[in-house]
Amino acid sequence: MTVPDTSAAVLALDPADQSTRRRSLIAACSAHAVHDGLTDVIYVLLPIWQAQFAISYAMVGLLRGSYSGMMAGFQLLASRMAKRWGRERMLIGGTALAGVAYLVAGQAGGLGVLLFALLLGGLGASSQHPLASSIVTDTHEAGGGVKEALSQYNFAGDIGKTLIPALVGLLLLVCSWQASVSLIGLLGLAAAGLLCWLLPRKGELQAGQKKAGKTIVGNGSKGGFRALLATGTLDSAVRMGFLTFLPFLLKSKGAGTAGIGVALSLLFVGGAFGKLLCGYLGVRIGMMKTVWITESMTSLLIVLVLCLPLLGVMAMLPLLGLALNGTSSVLYGVVPELAEPGKREHAFALFYTGTIGGGALSPMLFGALGDAASVPIALMALAAILLLTLPLAWKVQKGIAS
């Protein structure tokens, strides 16, 4: 692997290249913020849908998993289609489709239409992660700072997770969930229009890549990449499973709808800073040490959430969010290092397919466990499973060093 001299490389970029880098990063961050916000607002709505449609925890998990499952299952296809239609068109079209899906969900009078809307939204969301992250990587490798740029990209996603669920939580105080969902659908369409203006054209991106000097070249470690994929999948499965059960746990401790929205915002604020901090921390102390710190802390804090009263849980949520979401930022930054030469976009698509796929299956599997046993038992199982990432991170580190 060859790592450029970041300071010298950035100074060597001409103003046009710097503008392309800046616009690409802003566009990718905007797309990530909106898509992650549209994805995680579902957690605020799940208790409402459970009450309205009288569904079990397993069905709650199915609703949550349907969106994530479609998003995971079509990422590889989105990556392939981008080679024909262009990453920019696919990213804009996917964002618009996610917005349309929420407009459909806002008109849902039954569980079938709601499920269809969530599947449609997941299909639109499938374009965002692999395409936006590869755009960031391609535009920043010429001047260096790819890991730092990806950390900012992931930080933006958690900003969306913080603001949009909080906004919907407040809207639910003054209007119906149907009206609230329709408004965030309009937000998705507005974001698609913003991307049309922000995203550099294909020719500008290619011109910037031709001027690149030394670039990051992956070593193609298949064993290391498989371990990375397994680590990301388990991390995502625990995160999505915990987020699915958190509103119900908070409700059992006395929180109302607005309180659940505030709690999720506190969690995502911590997660946003966790992704930014852990991305830089991974550069300083290494991937393995960072993952060991964040995953051990997450497992411990999940257990504490079960024991603490509501006020204690609310106070602890920012710290839990920092550890819960911070790991993913470190893992994303390793993908270019382990990708085979010329297959970076495919590696990103595989990684996001595995991680989001794990996140899609987790609510359904642990939802069934919650029905059979209880929510606390399901959360304890999640905390235990997370510890499996510790030996996997060691295996990833060996792949990077090889």
Overview in brief:
By secondary structure, the protein is an all-alpha fold. It is built from 17 helices and no strands.
Uncertain residue ranges: 1-12
* Mean pLDDT, all residues: 83
Strand content: under 5%
The radius of gyration is 20 Å
Total number of strands: 0
Main β-sheet description: none
Main structural class: mainly alpha
Task: Tell me the series of helices and strands, N- to C-terminal.
Answer: HHHHHHHHHHHHHHHHH
Q: How far apart are the termini?
A: 10 Å
The number of helical elements comes to: 17
**Approximate helicity band:** over 70%
Shape: globular
Keywords:
about 400 residues; about 85% helix; mainly alpha; disordered N terminus; globular
Structure commentary:
By secondary structure, the chain is mainly α. Helices cover 86% and strands 0% of the residues. It is built from 17 helices and no strands. The protein is globular and about 50 Å long. The N and C termini lie close together (10 Å).
Write the layout of secondary structure elements.
Blueprint: H1 6-12, H2 15-53, H3 57-73, H4 75-85, H5 87-106, H6 111-125, H7 128-140, H8 146-174, H9 177-198, H10 202-210, H11 222-252, H12 257-285, H13 287-307, H14 310-338, H15 344-372, H16 375-386, H17 389-401
Helix pairs in contact: 2-3, 2-5, 2-7, 2-8, 2-9, 2-11, 2-12, 3-6, 3-15, 4-5, 4-7, 4-15, 5-6, 5-7, 5-9, 7-8, 7-15, 8-9, 8-12, 8-14, 11-12, 11-14, 11-15, 11-16, 11-17, 12-13, 12-14, 13-14, 13-16, 13-17, 14-15, 15-16
